[in-house]
Design brief:
It contains 4 helices and no strands. The relative contact order is 0.22.
Length: about 80
């Protein structure tokens, strides 16, 4: 999974997307993919969607790859 994320980040950076926009896109991709695959059920223990842990892992890895501060990553995405 990390190789795919790394490759996607490289391609998106090459296209001129900002780090914040890349993070927003990756987050949306995980959420939408979970919905399409029918993985949108909620945990009985936490009430959170089951895919949320995958999204968190993807975002943590992507932030590390982009060297983005968590505060910066919460800003609205900006496309150049």
């Amino acid at each position: 999974m990390r190789r795919v994320i790394r490759d996607a980040i490289l391609e998106l950076v090459t296209m001129g997307m900002t780090d914040t926009a890349i993070l927003a896109l990756l987050s949306q991709v995980v959420e939408q993919l979970a919905g399409v695959l029918g993985l949108d059920k909620r945990s009985l223990l936490t009430g959170q969607p089951d895919w949320l842990s995958t999204q968190t892992e993807v975002m943590e890895f992507a932030r590390a790859e982009l060297c983005v501060d968590v505060v910066e990553a919460t800003l609205d995405p900006v496309f150049p």
